[in-house]
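Our preliminary data section would be incomplete without showing what the modeling component actually yields. Below, a chain of 95 amino acids is followed by its predicted structure, encoded as tokens that our downstream tools consume directly.
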Amino acid sequence: MSSKDGRWVIWPAYIDAGRSRGQGRAVSRRDAVEEPTVDEILVAALEMGLQAEAERDKHYPKEWWEKSGRVRVQKKGPKAALVREIATRIRRRRG
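Predicted structure:
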């Protein structure tokens, strides 16, 4: 899921509490958020000081018929830790 330009791909499914691990959730349910958006992921990544770019017209491979979008972020540390931190920041912003 990494690309050659030094960025990770973060799909909303990775942090969606409504999904199972088999459906793409990459964090624990406790760390996940309900129906995260590409914009929320982008804002969280930018708050972390990462270079990030939203690609709203992309389809999550497991649900190719639906445009969920994705965010490409600068590689900085392990991907799992990055995804968890993004989910934490979204939860804090939602209050």
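The helical segments are 38-47, 79-94. DSSP finds two helices and three strands in the chain. Preliminary results of this kind motivate Aim 1 of the renewal.
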